[in-house]
Amino acid sequence: MGQVVVISTGGTIASRWQGSGYAADAAGGDVLATAAVPEGVTVRVVDLMSVNSARITTAHQIALLRTVREVLADPAVDGVVVTHGTDTLEESAFFVDLHHDDPRPVVFTGAQRPLEDPEGDGPRNLHDALLTAATVRGLGVLVVFDGRAHAARGTVKVQTLAADAFADPSGEPVADVSADGVVVHRRPERPAPLPVPAATGPLPRVDVVMHHCDADPVLFEAAVAAGAQGIVLVATGAGNATPEICAAVEAAVARGVLVALTTRVPTGPVAEIYTHGGAVDLAAAGAVLTGTLRAGQARIAVLSAALAATDPAGRAEALRHALAAPVPATA
């Protein structure tokens, strides 16, 4: 089939017992050795990092994006697999997807059980990711887990422990993956890629604040005071909060802070329906609605927009571009 490069970043798929719990410490070659490599596929491993994914930072994600691009600079490479911890896999996959401009696939996978578990799911997931990376084209960045391939955009972790860890609550899987091959059901739609962030310079702070009963603007305003250049407001329902939080959003936007609006509800889009602090008022205050993206990926969209421009208008335009009605994928 071709050559696939595996970029190892750690996570449960590379975790061993540390005496009191599991932590990532295995090299990519050790992880690869657990999986059956599909016939006709050759594999090269890049050990980028080895961390539990709860510790992933923007700097790690930029390093990963640049490594993916360096790997794909070789025309002999047919695809890339990234082994990654599941806690923040949805964020790293979406970050790469927002900047990915190559028809060759980047496939994220991992495991819910550690490396040496006799009933581990890592070997199958890695096999399926290798097979997918070697065979598909024009689907953007994918998440392959438990026999299914999901588009990076919209896909989140939906199970803390079960093997079917990932899904897009508002969409369908892209493909089914088995030992017999990859059966593609749909082609994800994606906006044109954003530019790759600069390698130098300070990284923007982007915070997430959740609305709930009795919520006031204190935490939102604390994020602004801490220097946040972007804030994701996780609202209730279809994107609703209070008049007091609307006022805080308006003041933050006036200071140049990029504010995005999502919801704590698992499925469905945010929508301008309600006033008295609802999404109608939040949008009027300057918040950008994020469609079906939930908190982690909405934050990545804001982060990428903040990395794409320095002025508030440019950042707002970049965010709307990342969230815009996408163009169909091409082969």
From TrEMBL:
Domain named L-asparaginase N-terminal: residues: 3-189
Binding site for substrate: 53, 86-87
Alphabetic keyword roster: Hydrolase
Catalytic reaction equation(s): L-asparagine + H2O = L-aspartate + NH4(+)
A Pfam family per the record: Asparaginase_C
InterPro entries for the chain: AsnASE_II (IPR004550), Asp/glu_Ase-like_sf (IPR036152), Asparaginase/glutaminase-like (IPR006034), Asparaginase/glutaminase_AS1 (IPR020827), Asparaginase/glutaminase_AS2 (IPR027475), Asparaginase_C (IPR040919), L-asparaginase_C (IPR027473), L-asparaginase_N (IPR027474)
Gene Ontology molecular function, alphabetical: asparaginase activity
Domain of life: Bacteria
Catalytic center residues: 12, 86
Residue ranges of domain Asparaginase/glutaminase C-terminal in the record: 205-311
CDD domains, per database record: L-asparaginase_II
Matches recorded under PROSITE patterns: ASN_GLN_ASE_1, ASN_GLN_ASE_2, ASN_GLN_ASE_3
EC number, as in UniProt: 3.5.1.1
Gene Ontology biological process terms in this record: asparagine metabolic process
PANTHER family per record: 60 KDA LYSOPHOSPHOLIPASE, L-ASPARAGINASE
Assigned protein family: Belongs to the asparaginase 1 family.
The protein, known as: asparaginase
Organism per entry: Streptomyces caatingaensis
